[in-house]
Amino acid sequence: MNAYNCVEFRYPLIDKNLTKANCLELARRDGLLPKIYENYNYNNCVGCVKGGIGYWLQIKNDYPEVFERFAKLEREIGHSILSKDYLDELQDGRGRQVVTRPECDMFCSLLE
């Protein structure tokens, strides 16, 4: 029981020493991983307005129609979703890279 003695917390993934990467790889292997998670380290909507420069440059490459739609919308409303730059002004090589490739390790095989 927890400090309030009313709820018992359980952590089955932690108890099996599974990491986020392990779980992602298991889900990918079994066809349960959402499509966007194949290239990104989260499952936000494509074109998430909370994304930063690196995210939007990745969207520009992977989903150009989404990128163009948001870039056009920014210009129509006269405000950028980023702090300074409009999407159509972004230069490649800026921002943090958001790609991840989950890898399985010995814990994945132990689950089988």
Helix content: 25-40%
Distance N terminus to C terminus? 30 Å
**How do the helices and strands follow one another from N- to C-terminus?**
HHHHH
Given helix and strand content, the structural type is mainly alpha
Estimated share of beta-strand residues: under 5%
Radius of gyration over alpha carbons? 19 Å
Report on the structure:
This protein is mostly helical and 112 residues long. It has five helices and no strands. 39% of the residues lie in helices and 0% in strands. Helix 3 (53-62) packs across helix 4 (64-77). The two termini are 30 Å apart.
What's the quick description here?
The protein has helices at 12-15, 20-29, 53-62, 64-77, 106-111. It is 39% helix and 0% strand.
Give keywords.
mainly alpha, 112 residues
How are the SSEs ordered, and which strands pair?
Elements: H1 12-15, H2 20-29, H3 53-62, H4 64-77, H5 106-111
Helix pairs in contact: 3-4
